[in-house]
Structures are given as C-alpha cells and as structure tokens.
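quick one: farnesyl diphosphate bound model?
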Amino acid sequence: MQKTDPVTHADHVAVIMDGNGRWATARGLERLKGHVKGVDRVREVVRAAPDYGIGYLTVFAFSTENWKRSEREVTGLMNLFKRYIRGEAATLDEDNVRVRFIGDRRPLDRKLRSLMDELEKLTETNTGLKLTIALNYGGRDEITRAVGRIAKAAKMGMIDPAEVTEQMIGNFLDTSDLPDPDLIIRTSGECRTSNFLPWQSCYAEYVFTETAWPDFTVAELVKTLNQFRARDRRFGAAVAK
Ligand code: FPP
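yep, here:
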C-alpha cells in the first residue's frame, strides 16, 4: 500500500467534535466541562495522528451558528480556545505541527485573534502534521466570502468570468493550501454534516460514531480509520469487474 494512495489511506482526516454538552449533562456537569474534556481529546488525537499516517487533521472547534448558544457557553469556549493556544503552543511547535485557522476571524475578540496569529507564525515552517482549526467557520460563509473576492477581482479586470474554474474557486477558499478531506468523522450519533467543508467534502468518506467527543480516544480513532479502509472509494468511476 502506498502511503499516499487516497483509496486506502486517509491523509486528511476532518472531525466534527460533537457531543460535549450531552456528555457533561449526562454526568450532572455543566456543558462547559464537556468542552474542557474535549480539549484533552484534541490534544491526544493531534499527538497520535502522525503515528497513523495522518498528514492533515482538521477540527471543527466553533461554527458560525454556535454564536446562538448561551453567552456563558460562548464566552467559556472562547476562553478555552485562548487557554489551549497559550498552553499548547510550545508543545505543538516542538512536535513539528503546523497550525492554521480557517473561518471568519473578524467577529472574534482581539486577544484571541492575536493568539491565533502568533501560533500560526510560530509554527509556519513546521513540516509535520498540518493541523487546521475551524473557528467561527461555516462552509456557506466560506464560499460566500470566496465568491465576494472572486467578484471583486473580476470587477478589477484581474479575472475573466469566462475562465472561472473549480480549481480557481478552491484557491479562493480558506482551505486553499489543503487537500480535500479523505475521511470526515462525526462523533455522538448525529448523521448530518452541519455546514462543515461542503465544497471540499464531495468525495470524502463519512464515519458517524455513537461515541461522544469527550470519550473519543485514540483507540476510537483507530477504529474509524479501519472503517475507512474497508470502504470502496471510486471517485465516480465504475466498478472494475
Ligand atoms: C460540539 O458539541 C462541540 C463544540 C461546539 C465545541 C468543540 C470544541 C472543543 C472540543 C474544545 C476545544 C477545541 C480546540 C480546537 C482546542 P456540543 O456542545 O454541540 O455537544 P451537544 O450536541 O452534546 O450539545
């Protein structure tokens, strides 16, 4: 098996880390405690990913829709992101992880934005795992921002509308430097995609697991990678008989 064979090898794994709130509520804890536990799992999965041949890991940390949650939960999550960046920056750098953020940063507070910038700068030349954190990310929002930029470039005469291609659109997305995800995992039993990487996921394999994100150990990751390997990926081609 070639390590880069997209039929058998999940080079880019993306995760919808769902179920933190339910995990906490089921234990009589406040929802934020589930997110705190979720951070531990992010740390473990990031650490383990290269051992399983994962080159790119993308995690959905906060969606453009998550602002609808209580002010307490939103503030708690924002503080958690700050704490994660402050606490993990040195380790991520030592582990040769390159970190990037996708999503619209403009509504985020100034302190969080500067921590995100600093982490990206600190790790920009690292050559190991490419960790992408989707923060205030929504797929439709991403496409809308890209279309706005393409329209602006066309208006300025820099793009000929007759020459717009899929490749060009991809280059205007937040994920322009990432390959499409091979495998998208959603934890905690919900079978929907929730505006996560809609453009990029056309040929992704989905694994929906009942396990809540705070219980998603490395052993669970290995299980989903095995499920992925058992799939028959054809990318639109016919079955060879
Ligand atoms: C969805 O669970 C999870 C989130 C909205 C937040 C995800 C955030 C983390 C795992 C924390 C840290 C992440 C990083 C990258 C440091 P939910 O609250 O919707 O769960 P529920 O469906 O049970 O309510």
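The mean pLDDT is 95.
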